[in-house]
Amino acid sequence: MFRKALYGAVALTAIMVGGAQAEDLKVFRIGILGGENEADRLRSFQCMVDKLPSVLGVEKVSLYPAADYDGTIQGLLGGTLDYAELGASGYAKIYLENKDAVEPILTTVQTDGSTGYHSIMVARKDSGMTKLEDMKGKKLGFADPDSTSGYLVPVTSLPKDLGNVAVKEYFAETGFGGGHENLVLEVLKGTFDAGTTWASGVGEFKDGYTSGNLRKMVEKGILDMDDLVQLWESPLIPNGPIVVRSSMDAGMKDKFKAFMMELPKSDPACFAAIQGGEYTSYTEVTPAFYQPIIDARKAQIGS
To answer: Of 61, 92, 99, 122, which has the fewest Cβ atoms less than 10 A away?
Structure first.
């Protein structure tokens, strides 16, 4: 409630200053999705705080790590954030509520040239489970209600692989782990028998793949992949978008986009830090790239 009230207050201030805000932006506000240790998220984006003021001509860059996905989504809908990196389902939620709130401008390119990733289901290796069917009648954990790989894709794709049986009928119980990192930790603790998280699907499982939540956890030293086994992998999911506030001054949008496009070459360490793994570059996207996820989310809401 406090977070939403704060966003509302900032939005009211934005309305009061009127159209001049976009033309004379002093503070560039970056929203960071929840689900990972806050100190780690702030550390990953520090390079943006250091670089962007001179690039954009603003006085400072402020980071806003939300407690969950919806915190960042509401900040973007309220116009109190200028840039964030979302999952496709998070963007779909914004689009379905107000398609003019943000613009998707870029997404990442995997090391194999693809612009997608996968939802994967993992369990403890010592559980004895090796395949999806072993989870029948057990407890499945999802990452976040607004996560693409951690909820939307599994809940819509799994029934096809379960013999057209609904998720709520196949598993004894489902729940949310409070973000991808926390979900995997809860699986390791035994809170869930298995859980869904995201990974590039490129490279080796033993390394946490080339990018994704597992890779980030391995690199932080909080996960040993020998403790996990993979039970399921989804079809390819569109990589999430970099979005900017639609009402932002066009000149600033262009400067920001050019900076991001160059980042993989100008500062590979910064690029890897904010993306959480190995990618080759960014590529341009439009809302049409996310239409299948928008449709899936709309259908899920109505189901």
So the answer is: 99
Chain segment 57-109, per-residue pLDDT in tens: 999 999 999 989 999 999 999 999 999 999 999 999 999 999 999 999 999 99
- Pairing type for strands 102-109 and 242-245 reads antiparallel
**103, 132, 214 from 198: Cα distances, Å:** 23, 16, 7
Model confidence pLDDT, tens digit, residues 183-194: 999 999 999 999
Bridge partner residues of 139 (DSSP): 173
> Do the beta carbons of residue 84 and residue 243 sit within 8 Å?
yes
Measure the CA–CA gap between 166 and 197, rounded to whole angstroms.
19
**H, E, C per residue of 64-83:** EECCCHHHHHHHHHCCCCCE
The string of DSSP codes covering the chain is -HHHHHHHHHHHHHHHHTTHHHHS--EEEEEE-SSS-HHHHHHHTHHHHHHHHHHHT-SEEEEEE-SSHHHHHHHHHTT--SEEE--HHHHHHHHHH-TTSEEEEEEEE-TTS-SEEEEEEEEEGGG---SGGGGTTSEEEES-TT-IIIIIHHHHHHHHHTTS--HHHHSSEEEE-SSHHHHHHHHHHTSSSEEEEEE---S-GGGT-SBBHHHHHHHTTS--GGGEEEEEEPSPEEPPPEEEETTS-HHHHHHHHHHHHHHHHH-HHHHHHHHTB---EEEE--GGGGHHHHHHHHHHHH-
